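Quick one, tokens below. Sequence please?
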């Protein structure tokens, strides 16, 4: 799949009249004709898209104004392009043709142009323009947030925009009702959201001229913390975890946690498999090591018993150790860097159900978590962070376009900085 490189072609009447039309003379006629040229309006931009021509080096885009002479606007290296500066009450006729580059750098064109599409936007100053949303609200529930607002008369739907740190505002999808639940926020970061209504005029998507008010979203890290209605006592995080290896055994020790009934210890092998999950009521545990040449990791979490059920505190940071005589400690309670570089994520798979997709992949030894990167159609990519090798993402709204996704593992060095492994191979996801 060719990566999308969005090209902004600025349409101005004076400039178009000055452009010289490109010669229609062809050097050869082996390329396939572009088919299914189509568009959608995004504000005052027209997003053009067409079926990919497999042997094309690129595409030339042409336009005529008010049924005048066609003029060359520019090239696109992919099967999509933005046209900006669309003016109301001006008729734009658009067509596209594919080309191949020859050995000497000349172009060999397809025999025919694509189908012609016509863009004709009504005057934006008319009295029927959609109202802006003025009462956008956010309700947080766990690691998700629900946006809600009053319905706008005449609206066919609503585009949802989220401000992602270091990326800016991105449209993450559209809904037809006046509420939406959003997941995938990274804990500890502040996001912003806004919504804009849209309708269709003669089959053309037209948005309101103003966005809604802006709301902020921040998800605090509540992973493994007990629920408020389960116990009034919140267990502290396990601190001071150390590992002392002697021969074929390791002694793990840590600081006491107030009000804890006991502690659960998990030891993981280099391939990410849990080889030992055990409990103790003391702050020390000796475990056997089966392979003295391998690297291991361990973590501890305190728990208490409430209404017959275990209620956990927050896990300790991970301590790494090798099956040789050594002592590994983490007095500052910052993650300790693994002695081995994280491997590339493998086995990435996607299972789509409607507008949702579930990703799974093979665990990476020594990883503290994983970053999922998804290339969202029409916009830049989005990133989610998860701790396990599985994630479910919702909001796949567009038909016929690929949500290309890849995953990489990360761990923390001794200063708490993230260290990344290589990205997995990409998978292409299409909504049902």
């Amino acid at each position: 799949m060719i990566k999308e490189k969005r090209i902004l072609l600025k349409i101005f009447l004076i400039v178009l009249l000055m452009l010289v039309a490109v010669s229609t003379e062809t050097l050869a006629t082996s390329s396939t004709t572009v088919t299914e040229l189509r568009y959608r309006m995004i504000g005052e931009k027209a997003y053009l898209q067409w079926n990919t021509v497999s042997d094309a080096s690129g595409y030339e885009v042409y336009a005529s104004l008010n049924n005048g002479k066609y003029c060359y606007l520019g090239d696109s290296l992919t099967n999509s392009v933005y046209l900006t500066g669309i003016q109301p009450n001006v008729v734009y006729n658009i067509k596209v043709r594919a080309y191949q580059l020859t050995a000497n750098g000349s172009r060999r064109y397809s025999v025919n142009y694509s189908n012609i599409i016509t863009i004709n936007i009504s005057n934006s100053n008319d009295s029927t323009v959609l109202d802006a949303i003025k009462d956008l609200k956010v309700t947080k529930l766990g690691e998700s947030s629900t946006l809600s607002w009053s319905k706008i008369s005449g609206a066919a739907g609503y585009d949802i925009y989220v401000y992602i740190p270091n990326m800016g505002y991105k449209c993450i999808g559209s809904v037809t009702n006046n509420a939406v639940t959003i997941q995938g926020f990274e804990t500890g970061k502040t996001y912003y959201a806004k919504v804009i209504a849209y309708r269709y005029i003669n089959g053309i998507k037209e948005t309101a001229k103003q966005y809604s008010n802006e709301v902020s979203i921040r998800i605090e890290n509540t992973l493994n913390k007990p629920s408020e209605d389960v116990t009034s006592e919140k267990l502290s995080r396990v601190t001071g975890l150390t590992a002392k290896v002697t021969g074929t055994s390791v002694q793990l020790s840590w600081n006491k946690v107030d009000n804890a009934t006991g502690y659960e210890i998990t030891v993981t092998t280099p391939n990410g498999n849990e080889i030992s999950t055990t409990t103790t009521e003391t702050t020390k545990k000796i475990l056997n090591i089966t392979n003295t040449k391998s690297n291991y990791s361990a973590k501890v979490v305190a728990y208490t018993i409430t209404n017959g059920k275990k209620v956990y505190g927050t896990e300790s940071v991970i301590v790494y150790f090798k099956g040789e005589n050594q002592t590994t400690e983490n007095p500052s309670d910052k993650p300790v860097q693994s002695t081995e570089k994280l491997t590339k994520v493998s086995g990435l798979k996607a299972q789509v159900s409607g507008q949702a997709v579930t990703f799974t992949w093979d665990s990476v030894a020594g990883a503290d978590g994983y970053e999922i990167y998804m290339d969202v159609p029409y916009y830049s990519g989005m990133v989610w962070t998860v701790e396990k090798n599985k994630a479910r993402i919702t909001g796949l709204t567009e038909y016929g376009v690929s949500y290309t996704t890849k995953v990489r593992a990360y761990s923390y060095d001794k200063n708490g900085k993230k260290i990344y492994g290589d990205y997995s191979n990409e998978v292409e996801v299409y909504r049902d």
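The first strand starts at residue 8 and ends at 10. The chain has four domains: 8-120, 137-218, 242-329, 349-420.
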